[in-house]
Amino acid sequence: MPPANTIVSRGSRVKAGILFFGVTSLTAVIGSTGSIQAGRFYDALTQPIWAPPAWLFGPVWTTLYIMMAYSGYRIWRQTLTFTHPALKLFYGQLFFNGLWSWVFFVWHWGALALINILILLLVIVRLIQSARHIEGVGALLLVPYALWVTFAAALNWALWQLNPVSLAF
Fold first, then answer.
1. Per-residue model confidence as pLDDT tens digits over 33-69
2. Neighbours of 101 (CB within 10 A)
3. 3-state DSSP call for residue 167?
4. Of 4, 27, 95, 163, whose CB neighbour count within 10 A is largest?
5. HSE (side-chain half, CA atoms, 13 Å) at 80
6. pTM exceeds 0.85
7. C-alpha 20: how far from its chain's center?
8. What is the pLDDT of residue 94?
């Protein structure tokens, strides 16, 4: 944590905010690029009865990305470094988040997508644990994300099991 008397200029705070929202938005773009053609593929998969409608994913992920970016900014605001271990976890979860859409929707690798999303979940949980000691609100902002990714992992597993030919690897 920075010393209590550390003053951070408004310009630095704005730049950091832009950076966190920018990097998180870039992750969203990378993931959505991988799922551009997902509609037909996803609709053709046998779905579990508890699968949400496809239209729900966009609003949920948009909300989660905003909360994620703000969480990263709040953690930075307390640490004043972009290389704090909690922020390294933040960047790690962005990597696995962006990768998942490609593994599942582009390459149709159900098993590897499941491994990817389980790693993502572990990184998110570790990030929450790390962040709660630094910035409690920042950690709480990530809880809905962890819950959604838990649900998404269960859905990934169910889709892989129900569609062994379409999601073979």
1. 988 878 889 999 999 999 999 899 999 999 999 999 9
2. 22
3. coil
4. 27
5. 10
6. yes
7. 13
8. 98
Cα–Cα–Cα angle for 80, 83, 89, nearest 5°?
115
**Do you know the residue count of the chain?**
169
pLDDT over 70 at 8, yes or no: no
Of 156, 154, 149, 146, whose CA–CA distance to 109 is shortest? Answer: 156
Helix residue ranges, H only, the chain: 10-34, 38-44, 57-79, 85-101, 110-132, 136-140, 143-162
From the candidate CATH numbers 1.10.1740.10, 1.20.1260.100, 3.30.70.360, 3.40.190.10, the one assigned to the domain spanning 10-162: 1.20.1260.100
| Spatial separation of the C-alpha atoms in residues 16 and 70, rounded to whole Å | 10
Q: Taking the domains of the chain in order of start, what are their residue ranges?
A: 10-162
Residue 105 CA to residue 164 CA, distance in Å, equals 14
